[in-house]
Request: fold
Amino acid sequence: MTEAGILLLVIGAVVAVAEAHYPTHGIAGSVGVIAMAIGAVLAVSGAGAGVLVAVLAGAALAAGGAGMVVLTVSRGTAARRRRVSTGAEGIIGHIGVVRTWGGEGGSVALDGSLWQARPSATQEQELHAGDQVVVEQLTGLTLCVRRAEDWELP
Reply:
């Protein structure tokens, strides 16, 4: 009985650790915690302790493990909901300054870099050097920009 309990403890721990490396959304972690709780009950009762002590040990292990699973799943889902802050998607919404503009395009200084830009479909007025613009889209290495409104400026 003790050997089966220890085996369940080890298997449960391995499955719970696998939860950290694979996106199972708490399923593997929950199975691991249940296996560890049952293993703790079997190992403690097989070692000669009373049934009440074994059940309390299993319940304590299950409560702690369940708390950790809930914490990791909630943190993981919160991270997935955050706005992208790097790469091409992260540049959308940033404010830049027009350096040169002529006709259907120009260059915009944005976050310390000089980008080629064209007006977005919503841009109706002509842009001039010094205008502050908002990035609406990135196509390849060309920004689609529109004039920044007063409420968007820092």
User: Anything to note?
Assistant: The CA atoms of residues 76 and 82 lie 10 Å apart.
